[in-house]
From TrEMBL:
Region (Disordered): 16-55, 333-361
Taxonomic superkingdom: Eukaryota
MF (Gene Ontology): methyltransferase activity
UniProt cross-references to SUPFAM superfamilies, sorted A to Z: S-adenosyl-L-methionine-dependent methyltransferases (SSF53335)
Protein name: Methyltransferase domain-containing protein
Pfam families: Methyltransf_23
Biased composition regions of type Low complexity, renumbered to the chain: 41-55
Species of origin: Friedmanniomyces endolithicus
InterPro entries according to UniProt: Methyltransf_Superfamily, SAM-dependent_MTases_sf
Length: 361
């Protein structure tokens, strides 16, 4: 067959197939109907639901309580051993047998706050400091101020603040320097200074509280003298209280001497612990914490024309809080310009009973 004829047949066949594809309708689409769901047949759960619940994290509570119990047990054991030891020095509670350790503070001033901060916080001593400092009024002198652990508690903000002037004195220059730095940190910025009472006078002084101390900025004696944890650090605690009384304005019946101290307990076994560790504690921290503070303060008050307004004891009797004021006789003599004369206290204090063991009188 000739090639031309074959070509014409091929073209005719191609045109016929194209025409047929355009005119014929497309075949129907095959769709699959969903099968009905049988409510009785189990439904497969999702993969997330098939996961087993996560195991709860192991609790740390048993370990924490166990560690606390172990620590308490160890502390109790050490306390028992200390209370069972015989006295190394039977005269260690006698003032005459206790050496002067005041110079120790020259070396501990920088780290003093970090050494006592946690223990005072846990024992609530900061709260006692605050209550005592808030009672201060008028011209205030803090004796044995140390690093200024009472700085943030005085009523010195606002025009109605009770404190007119605030003075700090300590025998250790290093302690006074830290006290000044702390004041600058608390009240050195402009905003804090604007909150202070207008005209508030502030002084930092280095000197012994057993000798002559500067008068108040007004030229008069002080309306309030406060000391916290100072009678344990001086070789002459009773004389120190008497000297504070000489610088107190005894012509004002509202004048006060406020003391926060630590000393002997009312529990014999605890006093044994204090006595056995007193010498080592004094060498490290510059403080004799086994002194009979109540007896010392009462003796000094009698010699100075003061009376004990209140006395509170805390921490099994080892922390003492005193408030002293001039007796009526001392006020009258001071107002008349007569020299103070030691007189017995006019008001008899209640005898100590079982309430005194809880710190109440």
């Amino acid at each position: 067959m000739r090639p031309a004829l074959l070509y014409r047949r091929h073209v005719a066949s191609s045109l016929r197939r194209a025409y047929t594809a355009r005119t014929e309708p497309p075949p129907p689409r095959q769709t699959r109907r969903p099968e009905p769901v049988n409510s009785t047949s189990p439904v497969a759960k999702s993969s997330s639901a098939n996961k087993s619940p996560a195991a709860p994290p192991s609790s740390l509570a048993p370990w924490i309580f166990g560690a606390l119990a172990a620590g308490l047990g160890f502390y109790s054991l050490q306390l028992y051993l200390a209370a069972s030891k015989p006295y190394h020095n039977t005269r260690i509670a006698d003032l005459a047998a206790q050496k002067d350790v005041a110079e120790r503070y020259d070396y501990t001033a920088t780290n003093f706050d970090s050494e006592v901060g946690l223990s005072e916080l846990l024992m609530g001593v900061n709260g006692l400091r605050k209550k005592l400092a808030r009672k201060c009024h008028g011209d205030v002198l803090e004796v044995s101020c140390g690093t200024g652990r009472n700085l943030g508690y005085y009523d010195i903000e606002g025009k109605d603040a009770k404190v007119e002037s605030l003075g700090f004195i300590d025998i250790s220059p290093q302690m006074v320097e830290v006290c000044q730095q702390k004041w600058a940190a608390l009240f050195g910025n402009k905003m804090a200074q604007q909150k202070l009472k207008p005209g508030l006078k502030l002084r930092f002084m280095t000197g012994s509280a057993l000798g002559d101390m500067p008068m108040a900025p007004s030229g008069k004696k002080y309306a309030t003298i406060i000391q916290t944890m100072g009678l344990c650090s001086t070789a002459s605690p009773a004389e120190l209280v008497e000297n504070m009384a000489r610088h107190l304005d005894t012509s004002n019946p509202d004048s006060r001497i406020l003391l926060l101290e630590h000393g002997r307990s009312y529990l014999p076994w605890l006093n044994r612990v204090l006595d056995n560790s007193a010498e080592r504690h004094a060498e490290l921290h510059g403080c004799w914490f086994n002194r009979e503070i109540g007896e010392l303060v009462e003796k000094a008050a009698l010699q100075s024309g003061l009376e004990v307004v209140s006395e509170r004891r805390h921490h099994l009797g080892t922390t003492w809080v005193f408030e002293l004021k001039p007796t009526e006789d001392a006020v009258k003599k001071a107002q008349a310009g007569l020299p103070p004369v030691a007189t017995p206290q006019t008001n008899e204090r209640e005898q100590e009973g079982w309430l005194s063991k809880l710190g109440w009188k």
